[in-house]
Design a protein that fits this description.
mainly alpha; two-stranded antiparallel ribbon
């Protein structure tokens, strides 16, 4: 009796895992209804699991550094990411009719527990077909610019000197005055 129950359980487990794997492969060609349904469920999941960001970040920060910084820094980091998950969950629920890519990565907190949560690609449309190749346009060659020949600048004018002014004599007087003051 126990052996047949175990066989049925293993058979059911294998059948459900095959179904899940094939469902995961078919997500790229999913319909509009399934895309918006997944987005709404993603929003609910982000709202429900947002508080789990706090212990996740405490554990990850402790593993990356020491216990003191892990608890204090991980707590603050977890609070910030909790707010981020709540915001992403609300945004997903409000905009669920528009099938966009997920904002938070990992999509669910349990997907990759060791990876820090990041946010990006806000409201990028979820496209299943490839984007068209860009068209290369060759710009025409610009016409050369003709510049008039440059005229040489006039030589700078030398300021006239005061009569009886000798720079050498002034420098000698300043040097001797400086030496006298420095010797004191």
């Amino acid at each position: 009796m126990a052996n047949s129950i175990r066989t049925l359980f293993i058979t059911g487990l294998l059948a459900s895992s095959v179904t899940l794997v094939s469902a995961n492969d078919a997500t790229d060609q999913s319909s509009y209804g399934s895309k918006i349904g997944n987005k709404a469920l993603n929003g609910f999941a982000n709202l429900a699991t947002a508080p789990l960001e706090i212990p996740k970040n405490i554990i990850n920060t402790t593993n990356q550094s020491n216990i003191f910084y892990g608890v204090i820094g991980g707590l603050f980091k977890g609070i910030v990411n909790t707010g981020g998950r709540i915001g992403v969950g609300v945004a997903d629920l409000v905009t669920f009719p528009i099938p966009t890519k997920p904002i938070a990565y990992p999509v669910y907190i349990w997907d990759d527990f060791d990876v820090d949560t990041t946010y990006g690609d806000t409201f990028r449309l979820n496209k299943s077909q490839a984007a068209p190749e860009p068209v290369e346009v060759i710009a025409p060659q610009p016409a050369p610019i003709v510049v008039a020949p440059a005229t040489p600048a006039p030589a700078p004018a030398v300021a006239p000197r005061a009569p009886g002014f000798d720079s050498q004599d002034t420098n000698k007087k300043l040097d001797s005055l400086f030496k006298k003051r420095m010797k004191k």
